[in-house]
Amino acid sequence: MPATYRVLPQLNIVLVLFRGDITVDQNVETLLRYRSDPLFDGGQHTLLDVMDCTFPEGFFAETARLANRLRSYHEARDPRARSSIFAPGKVNYGICKLYRDAVQAKMPYPVDVFRDPESALRYLDLDPADRRVRGLLGQVTQGFASN
What we know:
- Helices cover about 30% and strands about 20% of the residues.
- The chain is α/β, with parallel strands linked by helices.
């Protein structure tokens, strides 16, 4: 599955991985699955890794639809919870920055996009030197517990 998530309550985050070709519908379905997960907590930060995914042509044009379809997810989040997007590649970084700029006013919580994993982790108050945190970003999905 190209979109997976894993709740890590001990770190107060949900790690979302996008791999391969990812569609708007897969994005929505994954976040809504997390929203209905018993481990969901609106105060958890979101760490989104888009390192190895490809967004379809027209993805940016779909951002308004994406934000509207995720309204219940956004409303359930605590305004103090942050979302950090790790997008090291030039194209995905650009798409994610455009997405952030387009939907930021509609989200009750801060979102930012980073090209390096350390900055993406620090934005969520995670220490990249912490053994529980090392390797969260850039993981391959093989052998990774997904939902």
